[in-house]
Design brief:
The complex is a heterotrimer. By secondary structure, chain A is α/β, with parallel strands linked by helices. Chain A is built from 19 helices and twelve strands. Chain A folds into two domains: 15-151 and 315-347, D-Maltodextrin-Binding Protein, domain 2 (3-Layer(aba) Sandwich); 153-312 and 410-451, Periplasmic binding protein-like II (D-Maltodextrin-Binding Protein, domain 2, 3-Layer(aba) Sandwich). Chain A has a five-stranded mixed beta sheet with strand order 2-1-3-12-6. In chain A, strands 8-9-10-7-11 form a five-stranded mixed beta sheet. Chain A has a two-stranded antiparallel sheet with strand order 4-5. In chain A, a hairpin with a 2-residue loop joins strand 4 and strand 5. The longest helix of chain B is centred in the N-terminal third of the chain and has 40 residues, at 29-68. Chain B has helices at 2-5, 17-22, 29-68, 85-92, 94-127, 132-144, 147-157, 164-171, 183-195, 199-210, 214-222, 227-238, 240-255, 259-265, 269-272, 282-292, 296-322. Chain B is flat and about 75 Å long. By secondary structure, chain B is an all-alpha fold. Chain B is 71% helix and 0% strand. Chain B has two domains: 13-68; 85-321, MetI-like (MetI-like fold). Chain C is an all-alpha fold. Chain C folds into two domains: 13-60, no CATH class; 70-285, MetI-like fold (Orthogonal Bundle), CATH 1.10.3720.10. Chain C has helices spanning 14-42, 62-70, 73-104, 110-122, 125-138, 146-149, 157-168, 172-180, 185-196, 198-214, 217-222, 231-242, 250-270, 272-285. Chain C starts with 13 loop residues before the first helix and ends with a helix. Classes of the chains: A alpha/beta, B mainly alpha, C mainly alpha. Chains in contact: A-B, A-C, B-C. Chains B and C meet through helix 1, helix 2, helix 3, helix 5 and helix 6 of B and helix 1, helix 3, helix 4, helix 5 and helix 7 of C. Chain A: Keywords: Signal. Chain A: Residues 429-443 have a biased composition (Polar residues). Chain A: It holds the Pfam family SBP_bac_1.
């Protein structure tokens, strides 16, 4: 190849130099990446939203300081797209906290490391955690995640709304579906074409597994290999839950009203009487206690059709991604974050902070058995607010007996399958049977594919 | 299409091709030959950045993605050849059909509406005299709004219960639908939202309308043509090239719609937990498969299908509009 | 709305003219009101966001303060500015060089190559999304801001096409005269063609500024560390955290949307003449 003329070459060299400078210009990306090379320990999915979270993170900072590691908490809820592409790009965080139902899926794809060595090295006894939480964070008996939280679901009712409508929370139960539907119709309120009060919010799509269980259906076999999404009982449960929504003007109206709730504020749906009753995660008791301690709250357990209390438990789990830069420190980090000592210390800090602000402290459930005992008996004290004390009591009792959707290698795809099925029914695109049939096919093919890759 | 592929020669007409063909006119034939060679090398030097970019970021990757579409590559685990399994799955996966349908519905609603709306606005602009510049600015402002913010505005303004849109409709006694949650109304809602960003098309039409020679209208008027007739027989043919350009551009953009829908309905698990398939547009699904599930092999197959769909639609549009597009001095 | 003809109006009645002005004004309200609504909502307390009042009953500036405290907004804006500048500068320079190559020279394969340029212009970006990610992943740059601007080093088909049109419009004699004076090809480009086409270069630059500033797709794919986020990516994170399914703090989301939008609006007012001219050009030249 003949060389280009002298002049062009010189100019071209200048141009190359100019372009080479540009990376430096916008290169904060590159620079900060290089910085975070060896002394920074990053976490993903963790949010320091209250003292319980930040106090534990402080403990973890102290634990990693001797190793010369500085913890960088990348705030924000777990985002599966961000996580997987980080792992793929070899830029994985050192520790990640995610919904435990996702763990099996990522484990099956090799995106997470087994904790087997970690548990052995740090002498962590998984028997010290709630059994269902450990099972959720495992795949085929191998543990991949330790619990970072333990959420129970209970029934929260605004007794004032019920009394105003000539009934009371004492007569209100989710065990009798016929009565529940009738109550839902009575308690709702409409003005003009709008729904102004939700009588009873079944909380689907999120709580669909609980409705299925209430009707005696699991969504997947216990070994996590066979999807059972179109089990007739599951279809029946979905049909019923959607009927509750339709009884109140349909999904559009219900969702729109729900969206306009000031859920975390002093003018929340209980204060404004925009809601009669709904099943909800236990953390919301905490929120209500802080935002509106004076409401006429009537807490109860959610019941299956057999009339027995039913608690769908879930929560987050800490795991170590494949290609984490500091896997050993990550193990130490996870141990610290989930240890009895850390939890109790953090719960005390949160209780102190909550009480100082004048709100009732409603307790915490962590998934660490010893810590939960100490918090229940030593940290938490009856507050004198009967409604919230009762709620706390229920949560403590429920936490010992929860059920979980069995862990499976399709993880997020399995969850996505039933979620979007419920959404398709809610938005009127499909009947429950059609939607769950489609979800079943999708989930089963994802499960088969995941299993194929592993065997 | 034609005006794109063969741009009009520059205004100083004779200088175009002929001038170039002559090359440097000085020196002996031998010297001229080496000068010519130097010129060619210089030319390749100038266009080399594009050639490199084309190979590295377009042609190479597309070939790679063709290969990958026959594998289960996921950037994490090991990769296997899966034959045509991914392509077979395209036909079995109900969400492919659903997302393709959503996208086509969106495009079919959006493109004509956007073009008609923009044309009406441009014609109004033409008639308001000196203030046209000001209003043109106003119409263009939403284009500057990042699509993420547009997606957020959609969620807020179109909220079925408390949103502004239904509030306004309420004044007229209309009970607005649940735009953001009712699967039937989600796409119309997104289409209406997208009309807000129609400004660049307005500006293009405005410029095209202004360049229609005035004497053509005068001639039409002399022939006794009414308003509609002169619109139909003077305006439309005169701006048909521009209309065609915006048709293609808007269609391709609509078929790739992503950001507003993704912002409003997808992302983290909580945001996503409410999304039905009503807003699952093709590129959203492609993005999910590629970057949320890391099914890169399947995503590659999805991308090739999209490529074919857009190619076919563009060719059909080009063929059909060849009959309608009028070019000045067009001899074909 | 009723006026469909293009006749220059000299004899038209004032009533009709008034009607048209009203129509344009109405349209303007539709186009502007969302901005007003957004700004207003961003200053309201959480419970009033949806009250649809034009003027907030209580003006709560602290929303912005809270936003600022909760999120690294300055970092995001800084990131966006750098990425946007890098993207716009690189694409303007590289596209101009390539466009000049196609406009001035006659060389074997030119027309075929230019047809290829046009072809890639029609190529949907979504099609190359996955393969491009693989390239960056292979280069170990898939977790950085580099993929947000570096492809621009190689020119962009649309701008190459646009700029070539402008270069073709320059009188050939200018270049011939310079050649006779012994100027090299680079000089022809850098000293003659580029300065004469400055308006077109500015159009290219601000188009890319807008495209790059508002892009969400690439930041979604390539940015994971919140310290590297550009503003739109940050805004999506704000929505996920404070919006639907999050804390339902819509006033914070609105405030963030205002912060993201305002720089573009200002940029637009500063160079609006170039914007509108540039767009009009794409329409007529294309």
């Amino acid at each position: 190849m003949a060389a280009p003329p002298q002049r062009i070459r010189r100019k071209a060299a200048g141009l190359v130099a100019a372009f080479a400078l540009l990376p430096a210009l916008s290169g904060c990306g590159g620079v900060s990446m290089a910085d975070s090379g060896n002394s920074t320990f990053t976490t993903m999915g963790f949010m320091q939203s209250d003292a319980l979270a930040s106090d534990r993170m402080d403990a973890a900072r102290k634990a990693l300081a001797p190793d010369g590691l500085r913890i960088q908490v990348n705030e924000g809820a777990f985002d599966s797209q961000q996580f997987l592409s980080a792992v793929a790009a070899g830029d994985a965080p050192d520790a990640v906290v995610m919904d435990r139902t996702l763990v099996g899926g990522y484990a099956a794809r090799g995106a997470l490391m087994p904790l087997t060595d970690c548990l052995k090295r740090e002498r962590i006894d998984t028997g010290g955690y709630v059994r269902t939480a450990i099972d959720e964070g495992s795949l085929d008996g191998t543990v991949y995640a330790l619990p970072d939280s333990y959420d129970s679901r209970l029934l929260l009712t605004n007794d004032k709304v019920l009394k105003d409508n000539g009934t009371s929370a004492a007569e209100f139960t989710t065990g009798n579906w016929k009565k529940l539907e009738a109550a839902t119709r009575t308690l709702q309120k409409r003005s003009g074409g709008k729904l102004t009060r939700i009588g009873f919010d079944p909380k689907i799509p999120e709580f669909f597994p609980m409705w299925a269980k209430a009707n005696g259906a699991d969504l997947i076999s216990a070994d996590g290999r066979t999807a059972e999404l179109n089990d007739p009982k599951a279809v029946q449960a979905l049909t019923y839950a959607v009927k509750l929504v339709d009884a109140q003007g349909g999904w559009g109206k219900l969702k729109a009203l729900r969206d306009s709730f000031d859920m975390f504020g002093a003018k929340n749906e209980f204060v404004r009487e925009q809601l009669g009753s709904f099943p909800m995660e236990d953390w919301y008791v905490n929120v209500l206690a802080g935002a509106s301690p004076k409401i006429d709250l009537a807490p109860d357990v959610f019941r299956g059709r057999d009339g027995k209390p039913l608690n769908w438990s879930s929560g987050l789990g800490w795991a170590i991604p494949k290609n984490a830069k500091h896997p050993e420190a990550a193990c130490e980090f996870i141990k610290t974050m989930t240890s009895t000592k850390t939890w109790v210390h953090a719960a005390r800090a949160k209780a102190k902070e909550t009480r100082a602000s004048g709100s009732p402290y409603t307790g915490d459930v962590t998934g660490n058995l010893a810590a939960d005992r100490i918090i229940e008996h030593e940290v938490w004290k009856p507050t004198g607010n009967k409604a919230f004390d009762k709620a706390t009591r229920i949560v403590f009792d429920l936490s010992r007996k929860g059920f979980a959707v069995p862990s499976n290698p399709a993880g997020s795809e399995f969850k996505e399958a039933w979620q979007s099925a419920v959404n398709r029914v809610l938005s009127g695109e499909q009947t429950p049977q059609q939607a769950l049939d489609q979800a079943q096919r999708k989930a089963q093919s994802a499960l088969d594919l995941a299993n194929e890759g592993r065997e | 299409m034609q005006s794109v592929l063969t741009p009009k020669p520059p205004r100083s007409s004779k200088s175009g091709r002929t001038a170039r063909a002559q090359g440097p006119a000085t020196g002996t034939p031998k010297a001229a030959g080496s000068a010519r060679r130097r010129e060619i090398w210089a030319a390749y030097g100038f266009i080399s950045p594009w050639i490199v970019g084309f190979v590295v970021f377009t042609a190479g990757p597309m070939l790679a993605s063709l290969v990958l579409s026959f594998t289960d590559y996921d950037a994490i685990g090991s990769t296997h050849n899966v034959g045509f399994a991914n392509y077979q799955q395209l036909f079995e996966d109900p969400q492919v059909a659903k997302s393709l349908m959503n996208t086509l519905i969106f495009a079919v609603l959006r493109v004509p509406l956007a073009m008609a709306f923009a044309l009406v606005l441009a014609m109004l602009l033409l008639k308001v005299g000196r203030t046209a510049g000001l209003f043109r600015t106003v119409f263009y402002l939403p284009v500057m709004t990042p699509p993420v913010a547009v997606g957020i505005l959609f969620l807020l303004l179109f909220n079925g219960n408390v949103g502004l849109i239904n509030h306004v409709l309420g004044f007229f006694g209309i009970e607005g639908p649940s735009w953001t949650t009712d699967s039937f109304w989600v796409k119309p809602g997104l289409v209406l939202t997208s009309l807000w960003s129609v400004g660049s098309t307005v500006v293009i039409y405005f410029a095209a309308l202004r360049s229609v020679p005035k004497d053509l209208y005068e001639a039409a008027e002399l022939d006794g043509a009414g308003r509609w007739t002169s619109f139909r027989h003077v305006t439309l043919p005169q701006i048909s090239g521009t209309l065609f350009f915006t048709l293609i551009v808007n269609t391709i953009a609509s078929l790739q719609t992503f950001t507003e829908a993704y912002t409003a309905f997808f992302g983290t698990a909580t945001t996503q937990s409410y999304s039905s398939d009503a807003a699952l547009f093709y590129v959203v699904y492609l993005f999910q498969q590629a970057f949320q599930y890391m099914h890169m092999g399947y995503a590659s197959a999805l991308a090739w299908l999209l490529f074919l769909v857009i190619l076919v639609i563009t060719i059909i549009q080009a063929k059909v509009s060849k009959r309608f597009v009028y070019y000045e001095g067009d001899q074909r | 709305m009723t006026q469909l003809t293009m006749r220059p109006d000299t004899k038209e009645g004032t009533a009709k003219r008034a009607l048209r002005v009203v129509g344009v004004l109405l349209a303007s309200v539709v186009f502007l009101y969302p901005f007003v609504w957004l700004i207003s909502a961003s200053l309201k307390p959480s419970t009033d966001v949806f009250d649809n009042a034009l003027i907030p009953h209580v003006v709560q500036w602290s929303n912005y303060q809270e936003l600022w405290n909760a999120l690294p907004l300055f970092t995001w804006i800084g990131n966006s500015v750098l990425v946007t500048l890098a993207a716009a500068v690189t694409v303007t320079v590289s596209s101009a060089i390539v466009a000049f190559g196609f406009a001035y020279f006659r060389f074997p394969g030119r027309d075929a190559l230019f047809a290829l340029v046009i072809g890639t212009m029609m190529l949907p970006a979504a099609v190359t999304m996955v393969p491009q990610y693989m390239v960056w992943n292979w280069l170990h740059l898939a977790s950085s801001q580099v993929p947000l601007w570096a492809p621009n080093l190689f020119g962009s088909a649309f701008y190459i096409f646009l700029l070539r049109q402008f270069f073709l419009g320059l009188p050939r004699e200018l270049f011939e005269a310079a050649r006779v004076d012994g100027a090299g090809y680079w000089t022809l480009f850098w000293r003659i063609a580029a300065p004469l086409c400055r308006p077109a270069l500015i159009v290219t630059f601000i188009f890319e500024v807008q495209a790059s500033w508002t892009d969400l797709v690439r930041p979604l794919i390539y940015l994971r560390d919140p310290q590297l986020y550009t503003v739109p990516r940050g805004l999506k994170a704000v929505l996920d955290q404070f919006g639907d399914g999050g804390e339902m703090r819509w006033e914070i989301v609105c405030a963030a949307s205002v912060v993201v939008t305002v720089p573009m609006i200002i940029a637009f007012f500063v160079c609006q003449r170039h914007f509108t001219q540039g767009i009009a050009t794409t329409g007529s030249k294309g």
